[in-house]
Amino acid sequence: MKIAILTCQKILELPESEKPLVAALEERGAEAICVDWRDHNANWSAFDGVIPKLCWDYYRHIDEFLALLEQLDQLRIPCLNPSNIIRWNCRKRYLHHLEKAGNLVAPTIFIQQDQAELGLKSLYETSWQKIVLKPEVSAGSYLTKVLDLQQDNLEPTLKEVLKHGDAMIQPFFSEIADHGEISLVFIGGTYCHGVLKKPKSGDFRSQPQFGADVAPISYNRDWIHEARSILEAIPFDAADQLIYSRVDGFLRDGKFVLMELELIEPYLFLEHGSSESVNVLARTICDRLNLFKNK
User: Fold this and answer.
1) pLDDT digits (tens, 9 = 90+) for 61-76
2) For the chain, which residues score pLDDT lower than 70?
3) Which of 99, 100, 217, 265 has the most CB atoms less than 10 A away?
């Protein structure tokens, strides 16, 4: 079995964090090879499956990325997670879908690229004073801005973000800056482990690359129940198809509120899981690909 792990141009070699997974796949007879997802000379037909786990720049080339998913579909090369779920997860409008399904979701205003004035009108109808503005298709705090509506001129900043596509605005959640963001990791639909990502002093970003502190958290039945409810609300019967997923949120009045659902290329913090986490992920990948081959 031959598997392509999709990487990007800024990743010249396999990160240390991913080497245990590659080793676990090899133990199961699967050869995992890193392939730049934008390599137009890649022979995708040579692979039994594709894992988009390291394509950390897909949001900068979203049309090209979606075209690759279409190409893989036509070649009948399975993508893990499945391509239809990835397409859905690319655009953060999925938050509205999950909210309509009855989940607690961070309030969000989406602004189409050619409707800046309409978006601003919707924003000024809220009571939000401090906001977070970013592209709808984004990751890793790309072009993310924090603005105080009483002090900052929003319009030029919004127009700059809209140059890159549709935008989204959320209220600034002090809970994340003060107490951190929770990430709950699932493998094959089963809860695996969780971490708390605490931004460094004076920052709001919860990613480790911006200095956030990451620590494991204890099992919490209520949070995990909420996360499972979110996963079950994904269309395409996704809960039964997901290989990996990360549910990011924060606590407000003791309840888990969804910030983001990571189904494309999340960092899974496997080092904070049990010693079997990597083996469980490798087994899930191989079992799913074997199932596809036997169809």
Assistant:
1) 999 999 999 999 999 9
2) 12
3) 265
* Together in a domain, 95 and 230: yes
pTM of the full structure: 0.94
Which of 258, 244, 212 shows the shortest CA–CA distance to 99? 258
Q: Assess whether 97 and 236 both reside in one domain.
A: yes
Whole-number pLDDT of residue 194: 96
Q: Are residues 98 and 68 in the same domain?
A: no
Residue 52 in contact with residue 79, Cβ under 8 Å?
yes
Q: Are 186 and 245 in contact (CB under 8 A)?
A: yes
Cα atoms in the 13 Å half-sphere on the side-chain side of 101: 18
The tally of CA atoms less than 13 A away on the side-chain side of residue 72 is: 28
- Per the listing, tokens 């105080």 go with 148
The pLDDT assigned to 150 comes to 85
Nearest to 47 by CA among 21, 74, 76: 76
Domain around 48: 2-89+277-293
Q: For residues 74 and 142, state if they share a domain.
A: no
